[in-house]
Specification:
Layout (H helix, E strand, L loop, with lengths): L5 H17 L10 H4 L4 H27 L5 H18 L14 H22 L7 H21 L1 H4 L6 H5 L1 H26 L12 H13 L8 H22 L1
Helix pairs in contact: 1-3, 1-4, 3-4, 4-5, 5-6, 6-9, 6-11, 9-10, 10-11
Length: 253
Amino acid sequence: MRLRTLPLSTAGIVLGIFMACKGHQDRSGPQYSMQEGGLTEDDMRSCIRIMVLVCCIFGLGMIRASFKTIFCIESESLIVLGAAAIWAAMHYTLGKKPYGYRGLGDLFVFIFFGLVPVTGGYFVCAHAIEPTTLIPGAAIGLFSVGVLNVNNIRDMKTDAANRVTVPLKLGEHRAKIYHTILITGGWILMLLFTILFTAGWTPYLYIITLPLYAKHLAGVWKRSGRELDPMLPMLVISTFIFALLAGTGYILQ
């Protein structure tokens, strides 16, 4: 993870905190601190305030370091983008109509875990908008949606009481087909980007992670319910290594 994209990535942490805050007692996944009694609601609210403050401090510091001022159109655009990321994190489960309960989580994860950090990170560094960065951004976004999708497949039984998720709409079998499309689509997009916009063999370093993704998909198809728990960190770690190798290879070309 690069320092210039840290604030947007931290927004994802805020999202995770709110997900934990709203978790219910009989969910299929692991128990969270509030469910176990380790944190009170006031404790959780304090943590949220701290994380939002950290987002703002690091975000403004990043913008100031890159553009030497926060009073220019580029800086102000990034401030708006950062504010949107924090809003998306907070409203995943909060508010009168949390979008995470209406089947819109996939869309927002695709945007704020894929397009925004990749394209926004490039903009902060290069001070230019490069449309081609939307392709690897979309690839990472699809993998990120995959993480949410596995989580939602695992929790289908408990989510049915008070949430609307893509797996609940599709059913488990079709949700796994959807998951296969997400992972395969991410790989196709990244390969297209590499073929069309890079040179040499080093940009293909990320192909080393292909067996990890294959093992992940096989595991998703074979498991259900809580048995899917190991598939979540496997996809997260695989995507992190994928991004690290893709970036390294791009630099070395």
